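Archive entry. Fields below.
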Amino acid sequence: SPATAQEGLHCASGETYIMNVMVSGHPYWVPVYQGFKQAAEAFGCTTVFSGTPDYDITKQIASFEQDMVKQPAGILVHPMQSDPFIEPINRAISDGTQVVTFAADSPKSNRSAYITSDNLAEAKFAAEEIVKQIGETGQYAVLENPGQSNHDLRVTALIDYMQQHYPGMELVGRQATNQDSTAAYRATASILQANPELGAIWIPEAGSAEGAVAAILEAKSDVLVMHADITPATLEHIKAGNIHMALNPNQGMQGFMGFMATFMAAHSEVFDPFNDYRTSGYNPVQIPFIDNGFAVITKDNADSFDLNTYMQGRDPA
Amino acid sequence: MENSIELTAAAKQGSNPVKKFLRIRETGLILIILALFVAMSFASPYFLTWVNMRAMVMAFAVEGIVVVGMTILLISGGIDLSVGSVTALAMVIAGSLFLAGVDPWLASLVAIAACTGIGAFMGFFVTRIGLHHFIVSLAVMVIARGACLLFTGGRPLGLFSLPPEFKFIGQGSIGPVPLVIIVFLVVVLCFDFMLRRSTAFRKVFYTGSNEKAAAYSGIRTKRVIFLTTTLCSALCGIAGIIYMARFGSAQPTFGLGMELNVIAAAVIGGASLNGGSGTIFGAILGAALLSVVSSSLALLDVSVYWQDIIRGSILLTAVSIDHYLNKKRDAGGKA
Amino acid sequence: MENSIELTAAAKQGSNPVKKFLRIRETGLILIILALFVAMSFASPYFLTWVNMRAMVMAFAVEGIVVVGMTILLISGGIDLSVGSVTALAMVIAGSLFLAGVDPWLASLVAIAACTGIGAFMGFFVTRIGLHHFIVSLAVMVIARGACLLFTGGRPLGLFSLPPEFKFIGQGSIGPVPLVIIVFLVVVLCFDFMLRRSTAFRKVFYTGSNEKAAAYSGIRTKRVIFLTTTLCSALCGIAGIIYMARFGSAQPTFGLGMELNVIAAAVIGGASLNGGSGTIFGAILGAALLSVVSSSLALLDVSVYWQDIIRGSILLTAVSIDHYLNKKRDAGGKA
Amino acid sequence: MHDDVILKISNVSKSFGPVRALRGVDFELRRGEIHALAGENGAGKSTLMNIIDGILQPDGGEILWEGQPVRIASPNAAQELGIGLVHQEIALCPDISVAENMFMAVTNRSRRFLMDVGSLKQRARAVLGQLCDIDPGAIVRDLPISHQQLVEIAKALTLDCKVLILDEPTAALTEREAQTLFGIMRRLSAQGISIIYISHRMVEIFDNCDRVSVFRDGQYITTAPISEITPSGVVNAMVGREIGTLYPPKQAADTRTEEVIFEVRNLTETTRFKDVSFALRRGEILGIAGLIGSGRSEIVKGICRLEGDVSGEVLLDGKPLQLRHYGDSIAAGLVYLSEDRKGDGLFLERSIAENVSALDLRHVSSAAGLIETDREIELARSLGAKLNLKYGRLSDPVSSLSGGNQQKVAIGKMLSVNPRLIFLDEPTRGVDVGAKSEIHRILRELASEGVGTVVISSELPELIGLCDRVLVVREGRIAGEVAGDRMTEENIMRLASGLEAAPQPTLNA
Ligand SMILES: Nc1ncnc2c1ncn2[C@@H]1O[C@H](COP(=O)(O)OP(=O)(O)OP(=O)(O)O)[C@@H](O)[C@H]1O
Ligand SMILES: Nc1ncnc2c1ncn2[C@@H]1O[C@H](COP(=O)(O)OP(=O)(O)OP(=O)(O)O)[C@@H](O)[C@H]1O
Ligand SMILES: [Mg+2]
Ligand SMILES: [Mg+2]
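PREDICTED_STRUCTURE:
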């Protein structure tokens, strides 16, 4: 049973928190889980990394339900889709497992908190940076990944922002590359061909950025490349000046705050807020939205973003 | 093996129920799944719980309906790579229409009809133009996925406002058993029975086994192939609607890679990629095996970095054992 | 005698180079690609530039090496779904070893050897255990992807520090022509020639055409299938190393879905999924067609939401036209 | 027009590209007659039958059914008229049981929703029972080719037809099954059913048929009542020239030697045969006889290591051979011509030239292992000429040839290497008389050149006419041997069916 206020906040023995994701082999989760685990260790809690290796909503729901069978104190979940998770999340909560979402939300469920990067803020920052570098009139292009909401948002928000604030910026290329570097190579090469005046390209993830840079280098073009997320290869390109800048969501903070929100929800007895939550049957620790922020990666600070270096000596599980 | 009549014959010969069981083609798979169950119930106290069982069945029940269509298509000598995108398209069409104010039942009918139309379109290219199923369904896979993107702008449709009686299809239960599972079982049992016994479906076996011989016997093989192709897409449409009711949303990227899973299930269950053999029962066991393995790995908290390796190895081992048992049984049956 | 008269007549027809060209199986594809080229050069002034041509070839050159392996495997009657993950595994193995301090050339050799080993492993299961290529390569696809995750912890490897002479494989040029394209052309020409002329590869055709008849001609068909399976994986290994040198990174998720693309290229180019027929030249034209369509859509900045629909439709149309032309040619050649 | 004419073909033509398979042929079938169709390989017999059965559509001409012009658009339409066809090439579904295969057409037309499995098997057993003992529940894939042929025949007997077409049904049958079949044919014709019977065996035609029509090169030549024509008359009409004696002379007494070139000792396979020993002398042609399923093919395949788990000794020129697989056999000079040309013998979708050279590509390749297309074509051309092969182009797929011509390609493939020992399993199956005697002549030549020649045949007259000595196999053992005067159909049949104590073998190792 949860500790009381007098004993301070820490876990009872065996108190477990689970982080559940889709495509669980994806490196994005690695620092998130590290943050989750570091916070948990501070409170003496056990953590489990779970989910499905597949990009498959049915499988993720099955794994979430299997997590529930183990009656953990809380689950930090990245719901692959929002609505399908409403019922499982609510069932978990009514069975005594607290649920917090991260990076993607299920707003109509009873989850007690949602931690995410502000994709709109990222897009706005990227737009301002592009304009700062190439001026208020010019051509730009985007690569995208239709169907994946955060990537979608990063792209559409940037386009909207440009339209509203910098009408002189012309969108000349918009290609779907779906995180595939070969597809990105092909698309970028064609965009470069069709638009010799291209000034900048915005890419919502790093896999496509690798292919795009290869095409730009081959064409000996000096297009300004900006992308979100980071891989070791794009990091090297930043250091070499081939990529201008990357925006990376603060994954560690996402996991850290994700744990805190879940843990606090499971230990809500320490908190008696000035509202009706307790009497209306809600968990008192309700946080609609936590922004984990993002980092701006340039030549100067690139060394701090090598995930392989970061993970040396750390247990990924 | 693939043959109902054989099965009945075997059943009649084997007055001894154990021998009878050992002569059924699916026995190997059943034994392998049972072995997994025994191992898992020792390995995890959560495995043999009702909730876990339900979760495991729910994880493949709707896809199981697609497996039925694929198996029949494989038996007739075809293949369909478009199942994932056609399923997604059914969700997207029904969802978009519903959001545009159309009655959800009508919208679902339209969506299923559209999928059936897609199947007929593929069937046309295969039987009239003479292209191979593989390439036609690959092109349609791309086209249907594109249509999903086009209809939704790439964004998932939230369909929370679907009326409860509609959502009941996907979320309701009759007693403790989810309706989805009941629908799945009904579809499986019906088609399994018909495939073994009905004159219409026996023609599917004849066509797949030797199209020329079937044609010489007066069977209109092109029509058979056209119909199995259409049926498979229609079942994708139905599966899409059930998914939509279950999830209360329509995702344009739904079902990526589903085709390989579905074909694998059918092949593990004894369907031949060259046509002429296969059973629904076996294919569903194949789907169950794949699902149980995935679920078990998740339940045991096996490291993600090991999961794929273990999953692939179990698949390979299971198929090898099954193959070995079948060979032995066949040899034994003849000796 | 009648026969010889018939034959000389045919031989005489062939003296006209246009007619000779029309009798080649790949003519249909060439004409379709040419038509696309003509249309595109009107649609975009950038299309027919050297830089664009180079970029278009670069976009499929490395995958083209895998297409060669797949075509040979298809001819022998097999199929390989694991090409994408095995290619990724080559990158990952070589990349990890390099980061661990191994000489990059040695690391590459080890990686290619490992891929060859995987091919041999699949060949073993197919020829000795008797499983179908489809299911074996599906399992290996999962296992190899798992191995990629395991070796990298799911994280891409940055290999910027590869020595320049190694990167030259992927990024260098000889004169105006990138080395990648040269390697690709050499591989294609060699294998195309051997497949047409060498006795060893002729056995691949016999085996795929009728395995039993091949065995009754003294061909050790299992060995042939084992070798084609191994060759395909070995070529994936080579492709993986070239990709690594080209992108300066190793992504564990590289090549997802590559198998369908590669098989589609071979099938468009005339390879039969039932074995026994296909040409390298045709398969490469198939890959080129797919690539040119994608590049053209990007060049014309067609809306993302329409691209898949257009791409799928062009694919279907092209294959239908090609099929029609071939049918006509077969009939015409005889008339 | 004869009142009793049920089917009349007039002026029907059909071309496949440059090949004019039928050029304005006429044909007339009377009610209740057994009408033989004769013609060389590729004369167009099967093509005409396929037109009658609705599988092919004629380019021109007219079909009259019971006096009415009809268009037979599909096999289904043919069945509705009452036409049944036993195909020259076996057309069964390999994955399906015998019973279901037999009733495929019935199932197709059935209005019932469910199969009646029980009655299906019962009816299948009843029909099969007239012919042989095959389990109606067996899967067709598991049956040997001769049994498949019987199923194919049984399948046609299940049709309720007015015209039954049998396209070389006896090619893979032994005398006994063939006689059973003739009995059934006569009974059917007595019931008023008309039968078209295609065969290259003159004896069968003259023993069982009422009239015979002859085709040559896609043209109709003549029709005559059997009583008004002689076998040589038919052959003459078929070939357009005289054919000399049917069989080449046997080994001359003065060239006979006791020199054994090949010997098998105690060859045993786990289930199929046991303790098989025999020897082959220089210059002789050895025949192997036996009933269907007696194990003739199995023994020879065992020698060549084509299948089975075989033990025992095999000696060539007195030296024991270490054979592990068929490749070793070929290397040692032992080649085998399969009885199942479609399944094991040919690459149907590959070209004629590629088929002919498949057995040993070294004959058509350079030292570097590169195939020289000119040599390959030349090889196929010369063998084709030798065997009177009828084809369009050597680059055409084998599937475009008539059945008999496909068989010639399979034989050409064997002859393309220079074998030391050649096993031929039903070598002249479906081959016309002219080509047959040519093949016999070639075999005799090979034998006298010292090539060991072993012929398995279900056609006893062929064995007797061609061979110097015949081994008889029964139930996987050598039941005896006949030579010289003792080589009669009766003696062979007795040994094969185990009716009488075997005469002492004259030579055995
Ligand atoms: N599908 C086809 N394509 C091309 N040519 C064909 C085809 N079918 C038959 N032919 C040709 O038509 C001619 C007649 O063939 P058919 O099979 O009717 O001969 P047949 O009289 O039955 O000979 P056989 O005694 O060898 O069976 C042959 O020259 C053959 O090569
Ligand atoms: N594929 C097979 N599976 C099972 N039994 C077989 C198979 N092939 C042959 N047999 C059996 O082996 C025995 C010998 O067959 P084999 O083919 O050697 O006979 P055969 O004397 O050559 O007669 P024929 O060729 O006329 O059928 C038979 O009992 C047959 O039923
Ligand atoms: Mg014929
Ligand atoms: Mg035989």
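CURATOR_NOTE: The CA atoms of residues 74 and 205 of chain A lie 30 Å apart.
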